[in-house]
Design brief:
alpha/beta, 47% helix
Length: 234
Amino acid sequence: MGLFDRLFGRRVQLEPDLAGQLEAWRGRAEADLSADFDATRYVVVDVETTGLDLARDRLIAIGACAVENGEVVMADSFEIVLRQDRISAKDNILIHGIGGEAQREGLEPAEALLRFLDFLGKSPLVAFHVTFDQTMIKRAVKEYLGFEFKHPWVDLAYVMPGLLPQFAKRYRALDDWSNYFEISNFARHSALADALATAQLFLCALPLARDKQSSCYRNLQDLEKAQRWINWTG
């Protein structure tokens, strides 16, 4: 790798049809983050990876589903496996259940990521413990599509304690909140199943947010920032 690549990243040359898809996505209208909850499509996302090292591990799968009009839209869901040159370790496969053959036969990463972007559109993103999902997706987009993925995210790991501060020190994991709201998960550590569970948690958050005079995504972002500050100073 040359000096230019080390300083500015590797240049990515996409096939013309893939480059056209990317430009079409980038040209879509941005979402209005101040619109009412019921007027906005949200995409709830979860990922599976080869491990937990944000610098070295690779993105294996993305699962996502849409929330609109106060409902999880089951028909508007997405799951994809990115082809791996090297399959992940056996212990890792036991966690997410994506076997070696499925990893080798996954979709080429650039095409898989473009399909995700097409599903996403410009809808704002929701996740639980955003840093991991966001970092892994951003790294993959930079590597295979050649651009910085800058998109709005909200982290329910901070929003939920902000809405229910009495549980802030007791409930920290997705499973904690899922158990509290009696949310079932048909396949824990499956990207799509975890996205669906997170989406149901998001639905539980919306009426609580309205009770606090929060009615849009931007309000949730403000609540997340405030809760991060409380965690940092507390």
